[in-house]
Amino acid sequence: MAEAKLSHLRQDFDRRILLSMKLVSDVETLPIHRRQIEAVAEAAFLRMFMSWEGFLEESFLRYLIGAKAPCGYCPRRLVSVTKIETARSLVCANRTVGYVRWNVAAEVRNRAKTYFIDGEPYWGALASTTSEINEMNIVRNRITHDSHIAQERFGELITDAYGYRIKGMTPGRFLLSPMKGLSKSMRNLNRYATILQGASARIIN
């Protein structure tokens, strides 16, 4: 049963990613203003990133109670609990802020070190994607917050990505644009989706 639940988590996450991407591609065929398409891209990205946070939390808790991945893999635990609500309470009790954050890759990796030998499978799966997930957090915060720091961080991301700040650049426009130096067919939204799907495949395979 635990194995089936882990398999379901991976399938559900992939489905949510595909639905988010399809939403954008469908809207792009409509005769609407570009700003409206950008707004839809932002909503699709938020849905995708929230699904990622949920995937991390739920897979983490299931591994913590001894669930196995479909391939038979089961991380070596440093604590032993048998019920998912007990695992949830345990992880929440050790939070460093007022809530458990699953959107920050470094925090997830360190949390994994607390509960699993070598922090696996999260330590390795997130090692090569930390900078990209940090980018996603900056985009996420710019969409959800209009604070000065959110604007500045997003401006810095644009400067790093393109070499200079682009007037009128919105999160939606950025998501629908390719990263400098990469294939013009690989937009940032697609790039982020591919990165998250790859990381999820390393966590549950």
Total helices: the number is: 9
Element-by-element helix/strand order:
HHHHHHHHH
Number of separate domains: 1
Strand content: under 5%
Task: Give the fraction of residues assigned to helices.
Answer: 55-70%
- How confident overall, as mean pLDDT? 92
Q: What general outline do the C-alpha atoms trace?
A: globular
The major beta sheet can be summarized as: none
Describe this structure in words.
The chain is an all-alpha fold and 205 residues long. It has one domain (1-205). Helices cover 66% and strands 0% of the residues. It has nine helices and no strands. It is globular, with a radius of gyration of 18 Å. The two termini are 16 Å apart. The model has no long low-confidence stretch (mean pLDDT 92).
Question: How do you describe this structure in short?
Answer:
The protein is mainly α.
Can you lay out the helices and strands and say which pair or pack?
Elements: H1 2-27, H2 34-64, H3 84-93, H4 105-115, H5 122-127, H6 130-144, H7 148-162, H8 171-175, H9 188-203
Helix pairs in contact: 1-2, 1-9, 2-9, 6-7
Write a concise keyword list for the protein shown above:
mainly alpha; 66% helix; 9 helices; 205 residues
